[in-house]
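pasting for ref
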Amino acid sequence: MNSPQEKSNAFISGFMLVNFLQLINLEQKTCTLKVKSKNKVGYLYISKGNLVNAEADGIDGEKAATKIISWKDAQAEVQDSCKTERKVYTPLMQILLNSTRQADENSLLLDQADLLDEAIQEAEGYHLKKAKLLLSKILKQDKRNHKAWLWFSRISASYKAVEGSLNNALKIAPDDPEVIEEVKKFQQVKNRFHDDPFVRCPFCWLPLKSDAETCPYCKCHLLIHDHFFELDHSGNEKIHKEAIVRYTRVIEKEKNAQAHYWLGMVYLNMDNYEEALNHLDLASKLVPGERFYSEQLNVLLKHTASNGSFLSNEPPIIRNKSDSTVISLQAKVRKKILVVEDSPTIRKVISITLSQKGFDIIEAKDGLEALSRLNEAKPDLILLDIILPKMDGYQILSIIRDNPEFKYIPVIMLTSKDGIINRVKGKVAGSSAYLTKPFDPAQLVETIERYIK
């Protein structure tokens, strides 16, 4: 059907299309309305106050009319004539009622979707009171929203509330895979709790006893303890990836120590020591008064340094853009240490260990970068690995000692090799001290403090 090309005698906006059509119906006008809403265009054909046809998105008749009338922020161009064949026989007032009902239903669904998304974000960030209020609001509007019942079960602290919420979700959506999996998980543990307090697995939401160290469902370990590094870390790869996405979303939105801790733990379950150290360090910095985070970090630092667990040399999977905003507030001038080490994990261990003692750390991964950092930063001490790409530590040390500006900077050699020959070579080249990897973090700090004032 061709769009009308009649001369326009009016152009109106900022109105409710329903109200305008009611006025046309009362006055029994004949016209064509060209209706625009964003990038959509439709036509309403009216003869003596009655809607006779409509066109929009390749459809016509009553279906097109209902769609057009439900559009928001519409503008209408009023054209004088109405030239079309009749395809609509339902009274205009009935169509207006149907369109208004459909618009209200669509608006409610959109509002609920937005509320649910907000509730999920609050739940993922452990703002459980806010999440519960939002979910309650959704369920007050629509008790058949199974996603809301599912998330209500995940944040409920009562055994009966969890079971009731899951039963509701299952009745409403018995074929939903996420609901089925959640019910299956709950069946595994429902006889263990009753009225006992419980916590949630931070990775798969399974209810757990408050002293649980490992989740029996996803096999993720929740705590760094003496036997942690002897355990099997295979876990559930799918749940690992989902947890990384979830907690990365949280830390991109806000500074959240709890999210950083769990992100660190999921990386540690994947044996990615570099990312684990990074996020546990950020958690301890965000809440310096919380001993738990700093104690967990120190357990990992000690193990990594003393056991040579430098397993992850891969680039970071996900890095929080706000990491650089976590800074030290110490007012005193901090001594600078240049750490030259090609392993990103051991650099992280050294950096965190020394930062905790009040030092500023400059990092370099090879000899050329080390010499560049040396000129830029003028460090108070250099911690130098012997085995490096491009040039080894002895060559770098020789260059440093030949430069009058840097020759008196203390240099501590660090290497995985042990033996008298390396110690002699280090002394001959001009090193101040020699440490062997793996090392004890306390010994590292003690050695550095002997040479830096």
